[in-house]
């Protein structure tokens, strides 16, 4: 697994950091308390209609996907790991004007890892 160089450059300085996670690979962590309702993004990647199994793609409207598997064409949001269930997530994914964003759905404490629920079928594939 390579160091996330480009994603590191895109992470909001002083607010979030990318580092190794106990859940999987790299994760995104709060460097200070973040209030509920803060929007992050958009999620960057290649817009495609080709399905992928790599785990970095979100479905958009009109059968399109935003695929962040290419680290050189994506941003820090590609490193947000999956919550065990909806209740555990502290950020939610949503679409706005054709783009995908994350938003904090509760206050996140300093040092906490950002977790988003990828969806039931994806979680099942991860063995949850
Ligand atoms: C968007 S990436 C998350 C960032 C990833 N940790 C990395 O370093 O590139 C999604 C991939 O991370 C892994 N992953 C994310 N959340 C996980 C979890 N809760 N349990 C196991 N693997 C997870 C899976 O391999 C998934 O396909």
From TrEMBL:
UniProt xrefs under SUPFAM superfamilies: SET domain (SSF82199)
Record-linked PROSITE patterns: SET (PS50280)
TM annotation in the entry: none
GO MF terms, alphabetically ordered: N-methyltransferase activity; protein methyltransferase activity; S-adenosylmethionine-dependent methyltransferase activity
The organism of origin for this protein: Psylliodes chrysocephalus
Protein name (record): SET domain-containing protein
Domain of life where this protein originates: Eukaryota
Domain SET: residue ranges: 14-119
